[in-house]
Amino acid sequence: MFSNRIVQGAMVALALLALTAGAVNAGDLNPPPGPVAPTMKTLDQVEPRIAVQSLPSNGTATHAITQPGSYYLTGNIQGGAGQHGIEITTNNVTLDLNGFAITGPGASSGGGLSGVRMPGFRENVVIRNGAVRNWPGFGVDARIDIGRIENIVASQNGAWGISNIAGAFTTHIVACEAFGNTAGGIRSGSVAVISDCVSRSNTGPGYHAANGSVIRDSVAANNQGVGFLVGASATISGCTAQSNDVGGFSVGIGCVVQRCVANNNSGTGITAGARSQITDSVAQSNAGPTAAGIVAGEDSTVSNCTASANGSFGIRGLLGTSILNCTASGNTGVGISLEGQGRIADSVSRNNDGGGFFVGSGSTVTGCNAIGDEIQGFRIESGCIVRGNNASNSSGSGFRVTGEKNRIEANNSVDNGAHGFAIDGEKNYIVSNMASGNSSGGYSVGFGNNFGQFISGDNIVITSSNPWANFLQN
After folding, report:
1. Pair type for strands 93-96 and 219-221
2. How is 198-257 classified by DSSP, letter by letter?
């Protein structure tokens, strides 16, 4: 009896709970005023983009984008006879290739047709995510002012793989690859940014960027033109030029080249115009009788760089250049050459066939080391200060002074194949130097020079009568 009462009470409680829950969850049975509207999204709301394949031809291209919007490919596009692939004639467009390819009739088929073409300059255009290949003209022939070209692979086209033509500017070209194109790989207008790209095996240059551009973390390899051809006031950082036929980097006036590598190019590794900075870079094994490692224009700075095994100079600076904390080794020409009126400091030249350091007139050389170079360790023209340097194991003289009015002070010349110091010019001032173990003797000083007395021997006590003496040890 008692158990039955408990069961009956529990059933009543459950029934009341169910009624209460229903009252709480029930909605308003009276609809809001106004017409009833659908609650589901339309297909256009789910996918607001427009399929490119739904667009008609405009007579010059297989598909024409004439209105602003976001467009995408639903499959590969094969270019029609005598037509470009896709033509963009309006601003504010995003074209997503969606991983598909736009393929032309072949690079040699003629007609100058391009995969993606813009007949005029447009703003806020993005082209991305796919391949463009085998067009007789450009892969991408863009004229974008403010926009992006990203994740595009352009190959086997008759002109440039990717071109944002000169005159277009402030466009990013990101994570693209261009290979096997006839005119060149990637070309950009002014104030562009090119990053994380690869340009290889093109008939022309790997990259051609106009003034004010930034190129970073990109590679140019096996191009028949120069790897990077860049205008004035540009910055190139973290890039590699490998095995290009006309040189690695060729940049204009006022550029910055930093953390770059030029290797095995058939031409000079890095060439920079006047007033440029080249820092933390390496140029090695660049071949050819005139192929230097690094050449810097007038009033430039080369610092913390290494140049080795190049076909002529290791590092060459034109008038007014500063070469600081650099190393040149195993080059066919002079290790480090300064045309004049500049500065070389804290640098090393080793085993160069054309000599260690060439110091042009009006320059200062301090804290440098020439080791095992052919011809001579240092060759000095006129009006220079040469202080605190070391020359050893050269096949010729350690220091050879061909000009006049130089100050040769506190240098060390050891174990060279000719004289320690060969002073051929006049009106030079030679003091406080040290020569030891040189095959032809310590000093050969011509007529008309000023010098401290020469003191030979060991255990010499320097007195007030010879504080500027030049010393000689066997």
Report:
1. unpaired
2. EEES-SS-SEEE-TT-EEES-EEES-SS-SEEE-SS-EEES-EEES-TT-SEEE-TT-EE
**Amino acid at site 341:** Q
Q: Domain segments of the chain: what residues?
A: 47-206
What end-to-end distance do the CA atoms of the chain give, in Å? 128
Cβ atoms of residues 167 and 189 within 8 Å: yes
How far apart (Å, rounded) are the C-alpha atoms in residues 471 and 221? 53
In DSSP notation, 71-85 reads EE-SS-EEPPTT-EE
Contact 248, 266 (CB under 8 A): no
pLDDT, position 352: 99
Locate 89 and state its tokens: 């004639």
SS3 444: strand
Q: pLDDT below 70 — which residues of the chain? A: 1-47, 166, 459-465, 471-474
Contact, 257 vs 232, CB < 8 A? no
pLDDT tens across 324-333, in order?
999 999 999 9
**CB atoms near residue 186 (< 10 Å):** 33
> Look-up: residue for tokens 């020569």?
435
The greatest distance separating any two alpha carbons of the chain, rounded to the nearest whole angstrom, comes to 139
Q: What is the pTM of this model?
A: 0.88
CB-CB contact of 104 with 80 (8 Å): no
By C-alpha distance, which of 412, 406, 342 is closest to 370?
Answer: 412
Cα separation values, 468 from 257, 398, 432, Å: 43, 20, 5
How far apart (Å, rounded) are the C-alpha atoms in residues 114 and 134? 9
Q: Which two tokens stand for residue 135?
A: 């067009």
Element (H or E) spanning 15, and its range?
A: helix 2-25
Transcribe 281-314 into DSSP letters.
-EEE---STT--SEEE-TT-EEES-EEES-SS-S
Q: What's at 461, amino acid-wise?
A: V
